[in-house]
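Anyone have tokens for Glucose 1-dehydrogenase? Sequence:
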Amino acid sequence: MQPNFSIQDKVAIVTGASKGIGYGLAKSLAAAGAIVAVMARSRDSLDQLVDEISQAGGQAKAYELDVRDVEQIRNVFEQVAKDFGRLDIVVNNAGLGEGMPAEDVTEEYWDAMMDVNLKGVFFCCQAAGRIMLKQGSGKIINVSSQVSIVGIPDGVAYCASKGGVNQLTKVLALEWSSRGVCINAVGPTFIYTPGTAERLDTPDFRDEVLARIPAGRIGTIEDVAGAVIYLASPASDLVTGTLMLVDGGWTAQ
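Reply: yep, here.
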């Protein structure tokens, strides 16, 4: 019997889908056959993404979501399940990533990072879980980072928030896996996107990053999408509570 990697006609949510990794993951999921509910703080910012998915023969619908608003999370997730009759896959991608030296971190900066990267992820998981547990099935994939297990300078708040994502992923897997809901995380290295291009196109910075990646190249959105689609598919039904690193070997050292 062959493993089943199909996500055809599965209903998937992608948060933080208006740019970067989220934008690419939404397109990849749609290309693989999923019906994608794309979410960001402004629905207008998602129009181009929905158009691109539709023109490529896929299905997508835009929803406004600020992951700092717990009530809105609950309402929007329930609306997706109502609109499509079920919810099969959730990719919690929305996040902040600005660095700051530890001695300069303010309470406002810390709270903003945690509100989006950790609190928002948990309450999206909770909203998804409530729907999926009633169905008896579902896949939740949290976008963590390689720096959830190794540190980087000027990343104290970001690293802490992503480490928290790993831990909540483990605990939710312990609570929900026996009821049909698998929950995992992916941990990318530096991924080339329009938002990271300026830094990664700087020779000194790029050389410093490449020196830490044994695979010898910067990551792409397609690299992350491969892991996400696997974790969203039936092929990964026995995989839960884990962090899948997409880091070219960075953390193997």
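The longest helix spans residues 107-135.
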